[in-house]
Amino acid sequence: MITKSIKKIIAGCFVCCNIVAALTSCMDLDPKADMGDNLVWNKADNFQLFANQFYGWTRDFQAGADYQSGVSDGPHSDYRSDLICASSINTYSQGTNAIPATDGNYTTLYKRIYYTNLLLSHAQDFDNQAAIATPMGEALWFRAYLHFELVQLYGDAQLLTTPLDMDSEQLYQKRDDRGTVIDQCVADLKQAAELLPLTAEVGRVTKGAAWALLSRVALYEGTWQKFHNNNAGRATELLTIAKQAADEVIKGGQYALFYNADLGTKSYQYLFTLEDAAQCNPANVGKSANTEYIMTSRHRDGDKMALNVTHAMVGNACFPTRKLANMYLCQDGLPIAKSAQFQGYTQAASEFQNRDNRMNSTLLRHGELYWNNDGKWRTAWTVADEASSLTANVRSNSGYQTRKWGVERQVADYYESMDYPVIRYAEVLLNYAEAAYELSESISDDDLNKSLNLVRQRVNPTMPKLTNSFVTANGLSMREEIRRERTVELALEGFRIDDLKRWATAPTEMTQDQLGVKMTGTWFETNWTAQARPLNSDGCIVLYTDRQWSNKLYLYPLPSDQLQLNPQLGQNPGWE
To answer: CA-to-CA distance for 573 and 553, rounded, in angstroms?
Structure first.
């Protein structure tokens, strides 16, 4: 049902719907005629045209505080987690954010849900259901996607399954329980999986995308119920759904982790910069080689992005922390505290030696040659091309620097054409492993081999697999290793803060100081004389300290304007 607080949102929806109808001359409508529903919804093609607008609603590279942002700051961004930071304090990461007067995330989500319901409402009366199966499936997929966003951000939320009129009497309701909303998401995605095609144009949802999103939704809520509410029955129900949904994707055989023999251990690095243009990587492969992205936000060559991605990620504006660097395993499969292969911190890049190759694909080593799109791009892809390279100098900020999402070809700022992975196959494999483990707090080696170990060994072919015997022999925690794998694989993709919240580990992880490289007794001590930040007792740079966490931070507060419109909504715990 809908609440009075959404009344103004609906008003905007009606205006936008009329604009959409008026501008879509390809609907074979007289633009001067009354754009009534009897005209707009009278052809199967019109349902698809209406559904096309949904594809601008997923996470992307966007700058700003929009909920979609996956790389720049936003509710899901790693900038709000414990792994990266920037030149100014992020109040969400610091734990000092306040109740906002307005929240564009909140209102935008409800506007978009209204549109999905509008299509589904008219679909009920269309005489050829088979002809509109795909747009119906798309509407269900996006309705679930949007409602899940509401649950992640605010917990309880109004569940909207019909496009209610502005004068509806159902305008004074409380929020629905999050469990009710999640149940609808599950139902919508299962129905979407029946309606959607097996294959489609890149960037459009398919059966696989429905199962993949269901694995994400059910894993999130299943672990939330387990670690927050101690609700074993509900957790088991949802974790079973998550595992089965991920298995549907695996069994389907349509997706595979991206790997190119010529790129080898750099396959992970170049996965994120596959473009339409030629010479976007040393193997000269493009997006057509990408079998991993299940659902994407598409960017075509020549289209302008909303974020200057390469500069944002390789321009030393993003400060990776020592915590992220320390999470990468050594090549013997052991954490740095347990591995004889770990080379310590004495030299500028000694800690990078013998490490998970994803560390070298995500972070730049001091002294390493690299390229960007600003005067130092690659011109020859089969050699090092030193003449056109930059040399990494990480003696600033945290002492660590990112390289993920950095394009190496000549291209104007804002015009990189890589797609943003809304869902990729690696996440589904990790969803499967985590759901399997959390169901009984154990996992078979067979399940690890069909999921997590594929992800780990994509670019670490000689690293030992994660097995029960390996965990026991080395005094490891299976849960911690599954979580570690998820963290390093999905770093800088907008998962970490949501994971800390659902695992209920945020009070421990988010209150730790954010640190940079170790200065004392290392190469940096004598070669970085301009470093002016304080050091901790171990001689590491302190980027941000006095970080706070209280349980109210598990959910975002509802904005003041919505509570004024409808006090029945109720504020989230701790924000009253």
So the answer is: 9
With residue 370 as reference, give the H or E element that holds it: strand 369-370
Q: 349, 363 in Cβ contact below 8 A? A: no
User: CB within 8 A of 465, min separation 6: which ones?
Assistant: 333, 445, 448, 449, 453, 456, 457
Amino acid 143: pLDDT: 98
- Is the pLDDT reported for residue 379 higher than 90? no
d(CA 225, CA 177): 13
Counting every residue, how long is the chain? 576
> Residue 543 — pLDDT band, cuts 50, 70, 90?
very high
Regarding pTM above 0.90, the answer is yes
For helices 133-154 and 104-123, give the axis angle rounded to 10 degrees.
150
Token pair 């936000």: residue: 297
- CA distances from residue 342 to 115, 333, 335, 516, 569 in whole angstroms, order as listed: 54, 11, 9, 18, 53
The per-residue pLDDT for range 282-305, each reduced to its tens digit, is 899 999 999 999 999 999 999 999
For 4, 61, 161, 173, 569, the CA distances from 169, given in Å and listed in that order, are 9, 40, 15, 10, 16
CA atoms of 179 and 177, how far apart (whole Å): 5
3-state DSSP call for residue 413? coil
Distance (Å, rounded) from C-alpha 521 to C-alpha 350? 13
